[in-house]
Specification:
Elements (H helix, E strand, L loop, with lengths): L8 E7 L3 E7 L5 E7 L4 H11 L6 E6 L1 H6 L7 H11 L6 E5 L4 E7 L2 E7 L8 H10 L4 H8 L12 H13 L5 H23 L5 E5 L6 H10 L4 E4 L6 H10 L34 E3 L14 E8 L3 E8 L5 E8 L4 H16 L5 E8 L3 H7 L8 H12 L5 E5 L4 E7 L2 E7 L8 H10 L8 H6 L12 H13 L4 H21 L8 E4 L6 H11 L3 E3 L6 H16 L9 H5 L3 E8 L8 E7 L2 E5 L9 H6 L7 H12 L11 E4 L5 H14 L3 E4 L4 H4 L8 H16 L3 E3 L2 E4 L13 H14 L6 E2 L2 E3 L5 H9 L2 H4 L3 H35 L2 E5 L2 H4 L8 H6 L4 E4 L18 H15 L3 E8 L3 H13 L5 E6 L5 H17 L16
Parallel strand pairs: 1-4, 5-8, 8-9, 10-19, 11-14, 15-18, 18-19, 23-24, 23-25, 25-27, 26-28, 29-30, 29-31, 31-32
Antiparallel strand pairs: 1-2, 2-3, 5-6, 6-7, 11-12, 12-13, 15-16, 16-17, 20-21, 21-22
Length: 976
């Protein structure tokens, strides 16, 4: 205990979003440091630090961090002041300072030790220290064990843009056996380093000398990766780095007057403003039909016949024995997946075997669902597997026959399903935010506040004044949560506020403008939390039913669907032995490349119980055998036909003696006007170089932008690396415009992207060919004049360039004529067969880089797939004359076709941040009301697995549409 000297100590305290950091400068110059996670209670942790370093001396104490300013009645200095003071004390003058904390990353540019700019990361938990902690915990790893695991891993591709994408990607890779936990841990750390590197690149600041501060300075593999990335920089990590701001605060404290010194016992907190409150959850009691049973004992019946249902989810794995005769769940198991579905399923089998005991039973079928259904189906000798949306829908109808809306919230995925006469007609799954899922609730409360999951509901229902946190992302809410606790809010009010927040996020982000009916069923593991069901009832003012076993509804639905097939005769009864199934092991016996399409997927040969099964791929070609029997022959991929016509038959020639090479990015308007571009370049005497995919180049944007524009950046980056002589990237302002339309604009981003890329890529302007052009009749002459101006850069006669432009336009018209003839020839056949219209911009739906093999996923299920521009105008009056977007009009035209022809179905494909689609989305949904359709939003982080689930559900619903779900011979009861 430091109580001998009467010296006044100088101390600094930083309250961060995750940790409390404290420093004390001793008279001898020695520095004491401490750092501890505050779990939402910084005062308690601060007092804990003080008890460990108790002193009877007075102290001069300066606090920093925004939360500290609002919380403590102590001298406050900004973090910037503290950083500059610490740099001065240590005699450091770096170019950059990387402040890398639990939830906040900042790039700080400096000159002569003075801060010039602070560039924060986006307000998202992804790409922060806390994000890594969360991902490790999902795999059953602590931060320390995760770091240790990473030392033995290899890097794999992960969608680390946000928590949801990363969880899905990591889980599915583990589910498919594509990597290990060590690989995920290594990749998370590496991707975190790349994020920091890209932020530094975007800062455009000298980086010869870099200092790292913040908690991540303690992560040695991360720091080593940073050193590799910044190989041309001197990167320093100091002993003081983890508590750098607190050090600066202690130095500033030493400059305070003696009157500012206080005893620890005199430190006090401020009174804070009362936050906005929500109604107590219990006010919605009258709207809740909560059927969950506690303490119910399940009993396996001797001699009974069962279907075993397995729901291999991303967070948990569930298994049941479903009594065929009585329709009861006679045995069940519910446990964590921990990224390994095979092991989880074996543990479930062991538990079911224990519950069966010595009784003789008949397992006539096994049915699986969930995100890990593919690999689990293989483990069970290619048993039937069902899309999780359809499985949950089937169980919902069995529980509440007149259900019209299902809210399903699991640990990682959330689903919305809308019904019409017992048939699911609309659905949605969470895409870009984890705030409406169970994992957010668990991580925020169980992990962030150290409160057991089982206590959450009671604590929330005990709240009289829940705090209104709003519809915000996990990172914002976590910050608000900690802030509320720091300001003394009762934990019950915070917990109840978070429960409300999950549902507000779910309704805002997932349900959106969709209808919430009057018979609402709430299911999924989160439905076991009664307080969440109360929040749904309170916010929707609908009667909410929670089934007896909401966490097992996926299992029940898969069993019911298998039972339907048994009754129909499309599935045969078998005789499974649980103990024999437990003996099975899965081994990869090799791989081969599928040659069905250009994707050339790697297919694994998996051996289970001496049988070999093909597994993997982006389409349904290697689906389980039972499903293959139900699938029709493959449909026609008319997108491939369109691309062949555009890029091959009317594409570029290879000149024998070219004047040089001109590069064209394979992005944006190239997918619509390439025949014109290719012919123009050839007529100018140059060979055409189309860009290749460049993931690295995609990341060269200077700010957030839509995915197609990222691809354009990547295309230019690739062409520069290929050393082309010129780069052709015109400003395309408008497409062809029918007579009754005033305008036919291309998206604003697509029109201005050449200038954005020119700035980002620092291309020599003499090498850029960027004429403004438009393809409407009244602007063609103007466009030709703009093309003629290229003569100066190319050193050519202007008349020759103009003639080249005219021949290119004629070539493009020839392409359009043949395309129209192709449409007329095939239209009647298309309208008579099951066909999916991919409704979206051609640079999304026709691009192999952007569309995630979507055409292949559809045709492998037996449907034709076409683009919107393959359909002639439905009528001249369908689209209002004030519609100004070229591609949007094509989408609206396709919607009218789908409403008229029963074999046509629309799959709307958009990108996050798409300006025209965002403005027209309400119209799309209104026009498609009552129709079965699919809506997909993608970006560079969209994973194949979640994408496939949505597409699969869409096609499954199409197949179910128009026929009633078969009635079973007995009245199945989901309850016990």
């Amino acid at each position: 205990m430091d109580n001998i000297t009467k010296e006044v100590f100088s101390e600094g305290l930083e309250v961060g979003s995750v940790s409390v950091k404290w420093t004390r400068r001793m008279p001898s110059g020695k520095l004491l440091m401490d750092m501890v996670r505050h779990d939402g209670n910084p005062m308690e942790k601060f007092l804990e630090i003080l008890s460990h370093n108790a002193t009877k001396n007075k102290v001069k104490l300066v606090v920093t961090g925004q939360a500290a300013k609002e919380f403590f009645n102590l001298p406050y200095r900004s973090e910037s002041e503290c950083i500059e003071r610490a740099l001065k004390h240590l005699n450091l003058k770096p170019d950059l300072l990387l402040s890398l904390g639990g939830e906040n990353f900042s790039i700080i540019t400096l000159r002569d030790g003075q801060i010039r700019n602070i560039i924060p990361s986006s307000k998202c938990a992804a790409g922060t220290g806390e994000f890594i902690v969360q991902q490790f915990q999902r795999m059953g790893l602590t931060l320390e064990s995760g770091i240790q695991e990473s030392l033995n891993g290899k890097v794999v591709d992960l969608a680390t843009r946000c928590s949801v994408h990363c969880k899905s990607d990591a889980t599915h890779k583990l589910n498919k056996g594509e990597c290990s936990r060590s690989d995920i841990a290594k990749s998370l750390i590496n991707d975190l380093g790349k994020k920091v590197y890209k932020m530094v690149e975007a800062a455009r600041w000298q980086s010869r000398s870099i200092v790292v501060i913040g908690g991540l300075a303690l992560n040695k593999p991360f720091i080593e990766h940073l050193r590799e990335l910044f190989k041309d920089s001197e990167l320093k990590v100091l002993n003081e780095s983890p508590c750098f701001e607190a050090l600066g605060a202690s130095l500033l404290a030493s400059e305070l007057s003696s009157e500012d010194a206080v005893f620890y016992s005199a430190i006090s907190c401020k009174t804070v403003q009362e936050p906005i409150r929500m109604p107590p959850l219990r006010t919605a009691e009258s709207l809740l039909d909560y059927r969950v049973k506690s303490g119910y004992v399940r009993t396996v019946k001797e001699g009974a016949s069962y279907i075993m249902g397995v729901d291999a989810g991303s967070t948990t794995t569930k298994a049941i024995l479903f009594n065929q005769l009585k329709g009861t769940i006679d045995a069940s198991c519910y446990l964590r997946t921990h990224g390994n579905p095979e092991t989880a399923v074996k543990h479930c089998l062991q538990d079911l075997i224990r519950q069966v005991g010595e009784k003789k039973i008949n397992i006539v079928q096994i049915a699986v669902t969930g995100s890990g259904r593919g690999i689990v189906s293989v483990f069970f000798n290619n048993c039937p597997s069902f899309n999780e949306i359809l499985a949950h829908a089937r169980a919902a109808v069995q529980e509440v026959p007149d259900v019209d809306t299902v809210f399903e919230i699991g640990g990682q995925d959330s689903k919305y399903i809308s019904f019409l006469n017992g048939i699911p007609i609309d659905y949605a799954m969470n895409d870009g935010c984890s705030a409406g899922t169970g994992s957010f609730l668990e991580e925020s409360i169980a992990v962030g506040m150290s409160i057991a999951v089982g206590e959450i509901s009671k604590r929330a229902e005990d709240s009289f004044k829940p705090i209104a946190f709003g519809e915000r992302c996990a990172a914002f809410i976590n910050t608000d949560l900690r802030s509320a606790l720091q300001q003394g809010a009762p934990r019950e009010d915070v917990i109840a506020g978070l429960v409300y927040s999950i549902i507000r996020n779910y309704i805002s982000r997932l349900v959106g403008v969709r209808t919430v009916g009057h018979r609402l069923l709430f299911q999924g593991g989160v439905a076991l939390n009664r307080s969440v069901a109360l929040a749904i009832a309170s916010l929707t003012q609908r009667k909410v039913v929670v089934p007896s076993y909401p966490e097992l509804m996926g299992c029940v639905g898969s069993c019911l669907m298998a039972q339907d097939m048994l009754n129909e005769g499309s599935l045969r009864a078998k005789n499974y032995d649980l103990k024999e199934l437990l003996k099975g092991t899965m081994e990869i016996k090799g791989t081969f490349r599928c040659s069905a399409c250009e994707n050339k997927c790697e297919i694994k040969k998996i051996e289970v119980r001496n049988k070999e099964y093909p597994f993997g791929g982006l389409c349904s070609k290697y689906e389980v055998k039972e499903k293959q029997k139900r699938l029709k022959n493959e449909g026609q991929d008319l997108i491939a036909v369109r691309n062949h016509l555009m890029f091959e038959k009317y594409g570029a020639e290879t000149l024998r003696q070219p004047r040089g090479r001109i590069g064209v990015p394979l992005a944006l308007t190239t997918y619509e006007f390439y025949p014109f571009y290719a012919k123009l370049i050839n007529e100018l005497g140059f060979n055409v170089v189309l860009s290749s995919i460049s993931k690295e180049g995609n990341s060269k944007t200077l700010g957030p932008i839509c995915y197609p524009c990222e691809i354009a950046h990547g295309g230019v980056y690739d062409l520069i690396n290929q050393g082309v002589d010129y780069l052709f990237f015109p400003h395309v302002l408008a497409g062809e415009s029918p007579d009754h339309h005033l305008h036919s604009y291309i998206c604003g981003n697509a029109a201005i992207i050449p200038d954005l890329i020119r700035i980002a890529s620092k291309i020599d302007e003499d090498k850029l060919l960027q004429p403004p052009i438009a393809f409407s009749d009244e602007l063609k002459e103007t466009s030709l004049n703009q093309i003629g101006k290229l003569s100066d850069k190319l050193g050519m006669n202007k008349g020759s360039v103009l003639k080249a432009g005219q021949r290119a336009l004629a070539h493009y018209e020839s392409f359009r004529t043949e395309f129209e003839q192709f449409k007329k020839k095939n239209l009647n056949k298309i309208l008579a067969e099951p066909t999916v219209i991919l409704a979206g911009r051609p640079y999304v739906i026709c691009s192999s880089e952007a569309n995630l093999a979507l055409p292949r996923k559809i045709v492998s299920r037996g449907y034709n797939v076409i683009t919107v521009d393959m359909l002639p105008n439905f009528t001249d009056k369908v689209i209002s004359s004030d519609g100004v977007w070229y591609f949007t009009r094509q989408i609206i035209n396709a919607i009218h076709y789908a409403k008229q022809f029963p074999h046509l179905f629309v799959c709307l494909v958009s990108c996050f941040s798409c300006i025209p689609d965002a403005s027209m989305y309400h119209l799309f949904r209104r026009e498609l009301a009552g129709e079965v359709f699919c809506y997909l939003e993608i970006d560079s982080h969209t994973a194949h697995a979640g994408f496939e689930t949505r597409v699969g559900a869409f096609l499954d619903i199409v197949e179910l549409n128009g026929r009633k779900i078969p009635q079973s011979p007995v009245n199945f009861k989901i309850g016990g």
